[in-house]
Design brief:
244 residues, mainly beta, 15-stranded mixed beta sheet, 3 helices, 44% strand, disordered N terminus
């Protein structure tokens, strides 16, 4: 595993430990001074006791309600062969990785050099890749990969409570709420094209590739449900399989 010099400095006053496991399955104890061997630096250092919704709030900006398991796939445009498996989570609102340390502490590492990573919680495993869309780089969930990639950008927005009691009339809600919105991009040669959850929009994104378009149409003609995320994933998987 390639070591990267860290610039944590005086921020770390005490030495905390993190239990981790590398990809070969060997347990190890990693000290605060080197837990970010796979990262180029540190954004922040804070207390993280829970990712569950706070009082009077519906929803959450975090991918998981508790810690999941995180490992890196690609950094500095190179495959990471032996990434440490950290306890981690993803702040979808801030596009920020969170790594667990000791004593309820957590780290937000710099992620500018990270191209891909995995997160797993229980039986659910998800792959994320860095995609630049509309001039902004962000981690998006990879749903299919091959000649074409299908990725999902999960946007989170906090809507504050707006309850008003005007006597006979009451309006608004008494709670804050994190709302999620999914946007999808189809990538070919690293170039993202935004597609909506509409069959016509999806097929239009393949207009310059007759073979891919024909394969997608053939798959969707046999799809026995309304056009949804599963339909898009199946169509892109079919295209990529046909390209092999």
């Amino acid at each position: 595993m390639r070591k990267v010099t860290l610039f944590i400095g005086a921020l770390l006053i005490t030495i905390n430990c993190l239990k981790a496991q590398d990809s070969t399955g060997l347990s190890q104890t990693i000290h605060t001074s080197n837990i970010l061997d796979n990262f180029s630096g540190l954004k922040s250092y804070f207390v993280a006791t829970s990712f569950r919704p706070v009082e009077n709030t519906v929803g959450s900006p975090y991918l998981y309600p508790d810690w999941g398991h995180l490992w890196l796939d690609s950094m500095e445009n190179k495959a990471v062969k032996y990434s440490v498996v950290y306890e981690g989570n993803l702040d979808l609102e801030k596009n920020m990785l969170i790594i667990k340390a000791g004593d309820s502490k957590a780290f937000a590492p710099e992620t500018n050099d990270i191209q891909a990573f995995h997160l797993r919680k229980d039986d659910m495993e998800q792959s994320f890749v860095s995609v630049k869309a509309d001039g902004v780089s962000k981690f998006m969930q990879r749903l299919s990969a091959g000649k074409y990639w299908l990725v999902k950008d999960i946007k989170v927005k906090l809507e504050r409570s707006n309850f008003e009691d005007k006597g006979m009339v009451q309006t608004g809600k008494k709670y804050d709420e994190y709302k999620r919105e999914a946007n999808y991009y189809l990538l070919k040669d690293g170039v993202p094209v935004k597609v909506t959850m509409k069959k016509k929009s999806f097929l239009a994104s393949l207009g310059k590739d007759p073979k891919a378009l024909a394969t997608a149409k053939k798959f969707l003609d046999t799809y026995d449900s309304s056009f949804d995320e599963k339909a898009m994933v199946g169509a892109v998987d079919a295209i990529n399989h046909d390209q092999d």
